[in-house]
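Form 12-C: Joint structure prediction
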Amino acid sequence: MWERIREMIRKEFRQTLREPRMRGILIVPPLLQTIIFGFAVNLDVEHVRIGWLDDDRTAESRTLQHGFAANRTFELSREASSERVAQDMLDRGEVQAVVRVPPGFSRDLKSGRQAEVQVLLDGSNSNTAAIIGNYAASIIAARNRELLQDRQREKLVGRTQNGPVLLRLPAIEPDRRVWFNPELRSRNYFVPGVIVNIITLVTLMLTALSIVREKEIGTMEQIMVTPIRPIELMLGKTIPFALIGMFDMLLVTGIALLIFHVPLRGSFVLLGCASALFLLSTLGIGLFMSTISETQQQAMMGSFFFFQPAFMLSGFSFPIRNMPEPVQWVTYLNPLRYFMDIVRGVFLKGSGVDVLWPQMAMLGIMGVLILTFSAMRFHKRLD
Amino acid sequence: MSYRRFHAIFRKEMLHIMRDWRSLMMALAVPLLLLLLFGYALTLDVDRIPTVIYDQSHTQQSRELANRFSGSRYFEIVSRQGGYAEIVKGIDRSKVLLGVVIPRDFARHVESGEAVAVQLLLDGSDSNTASIAAGYAESLVLAYSTELREAQLIRRGSGKFEPPIDVRVRVLYNNEMKSRNFIVPGLIAVILMIIAALLTSLTVAREWENGTMEQLLSTPVRPSELLLGKLSAYFLLGMADMTIALIVGVGVFGVPLRGNMLLLIFCSALFLFGALCWGIFLSTVTRSQLLAYQLSLLSSFLPAFLLSGFIFAIENMPWIIQQFTLIVPARYFVSILQGIFLKGVGVQVVWGQMLFLGIYATLVFTLANRKMRQKMA
Amino acid sequence: MQQRNGSTVQVRNLVKRFGSFVAVDDVSLDVSRGEIFGFLGPNGAGKSTTIRILCGLLAPTSGQALVYGFDVAKEPERVKQSIGYMSQRFSLYDDLTVEENIEFFSGVYGVPREKRAERKAYAMKMAGLEGEHDRMTRLLAGGWKQRLALGCAILHEPPIVFLDEPTSGVDPMARRQFWDLIYEMAEGGTTVFVTTHYMEEAEYCHRLALMYKGRTIALGTPAELKKQQGVGSTMDDVFIASIEREEARAQ
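Section 2 - Result
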């Protein structure tokens, strides 16, 4: 039995590694994808260009402007001369927000009336807009606190026979502690997720394609008349791609650590074991694709059909928690979801088996089920 | 150029598309699937943040703060009697995103008018959700703080209290702040790319592989007729998809279309034309379906998805990648789409982007035409 | 292994339907050891389907077929241990070398380790490719490819070999050489089952079945068939006359 499997594996590697193009496919796309994902897939809000529309032009308004200029998130790129110009800058997408200080700002402040500041947000990207709105509000809140302290001294001091009394006011300060990713770099979140993407893509496509290619060129028929057992044929066709999948996992992990400095807090061995469990599912699905496809093109499209929604619903960039309930139920059938949890847990939270066992168990169960199902469909028959 | 020959090619191409259920699936089901996914299931909006409150104070004041959290639609209280252990365990298992710790001496400090800190413990792994959640939580706490001061002042008879500067945030273009409103328009670019790149890339290569190209070569058909005949068939398919996307986006998901519909259709046609030419160009050059498919996936679909500003903002990318996005046509199209849909802008704003799409389409068409002539000669 | 009635292939009332289309219609035949049995017929007559059933690649709809004593429907895997098969299409790996192809098929056929070198040498010699171990298979000319494919199909010394149009698309010279190999095998006691649509090849077979629209419409040695048709008739005459008879009968 092992004899025949070994021979299959040897053949597969010879075919795969001989052609420079195939060798390239094993290394270049994972490399490129990791780097593009690492750099491009980024939800951090930085370098926000804002416009400044100052209708007051006093020392007070300039102090506020300095407050914005000093903030690292904002780049005060242009001053608008009128509301029309500001609107135009927003229309063209030259700035993402405009802060408008209306006339009388300083007068109101001095006279103790409430002064107003307007923030015009480009809400088209609601996600960025929400974060920019938060930042702007917090800068103004900081200015408020400064102003209040001044005012408290002036206004809130009462008098008794014993002298002036300071009226003390309560203040609740939110004290933010961010765990696992204190600088809130979205890269730390996304790059480990790329491992899931690449392992799935490489193993799914290669398995499906390599079997269907043999069908196309007719060698599959030749193999089917040999005494090789279906299980041997299946193992021979999947083990090489499992090894390649593991290799790509190492490659992406390496890039994540060396180029993107993503922390790996958990156990690497655990990551390896989870990857192996996950491979059961992807190889099983690849086998399944090969059983329903006659041509390589069908296999490609089939894989694309599966991969695209599965990846979208894995929680990679869109949190599963935000999805409508019925869709959330569907994601429980998605092996990518569990592997995504595990990879991120191991990388960022340093979680161990004690935390991740349910996901690993699910991967194991689904893998065995999918693989068995595909194996049952995988006959040594043509009809 | 003969209309008859062009029409023969066009008809044949339409028959291929109609007969092959797989192409039709690809052309009609995939766009619908993507629309449903992005319109219904996938959102970056943050609400119902699973929160554990650890109330060490057990006073009326601390309960009031907790009530503020449970009353907000942004937070979903998992437990109000949590402890540190529960928060840690919950965050480890990704069941909890935010822990709010109200200290033991909270009420005493509030009464005596001293500063007191409320701890917000956040799972930062998903930095985007975390920073939005932190923003919501902080502004909620600060608002409560302001109210307490106000109450205190009124009690002491010092008159009304208000913060010196009032911020009025006005959200333009997308006032409901729904991510769907900017993702669905951008999705049109991705959908057109799928038609253009994935289907067209196969069309010429398939003729080479099946040997029908040789047959065509023996007829008087000219390269430009072949090119245009094939283009037109897929162009119709693409515009059909664009219409589907428009109807589903506006009709079902209620995405606002504020600009001019004709301008939108014209820009889509311009973009689609360039994208189709690129697909045919790849197909002509490689002569292999598999290779053409992979190349077009890499060169058109992925950039349209990742580097167009469709979901991930271009401003946040490193300089070098930003420069690279300048040659991604989808980038220009996505900004036109978001402009027309949400901002209702007209030609005077998007002419630059349109010019680029026009130049790109002309260039790629010339390139495809020349390659086709070379290969057919 | 027992061989009932001296036959290594026994087919009784074999039927194969694909939906409403009857590809093989009530075929019965016996082939004995060392025989070269030919299947002659136009394209689409059901020759390849019959061979694929006999190889255990397709399940019969009804009827029975025993290959080397094993029922192809019930024990397809046992059948596969006793046969060699070469399909219409050239079916070696283009991107492996001659030697790697042979090694691979030795492996999947389970040729014992100690016999491998000997069988490899035999296959190389048979294909006329001695000293060409490292040649990439895609670079071989048609005739060599064909013989290498045959060599790979008999690495495990099967008692029965099925050849499905082995010489289509090969020049007459290479075809001649290929038939020499078939004779050699038959003399060594191997049963050879071959399909063809070349009339001159039909003459080389010991016995022939003419297939048309899924049915065997004539069966016998080439000499017998020609004699039945009349003195001086050729294989072509036999073929055409049989088809005309069948068409008349059907109406």
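Section 3 - Comments
Residues 53 and 100 of chain B are 5 Å apart (CA to CA). Chains B and C do not touch (no CB pair under 8 Å).
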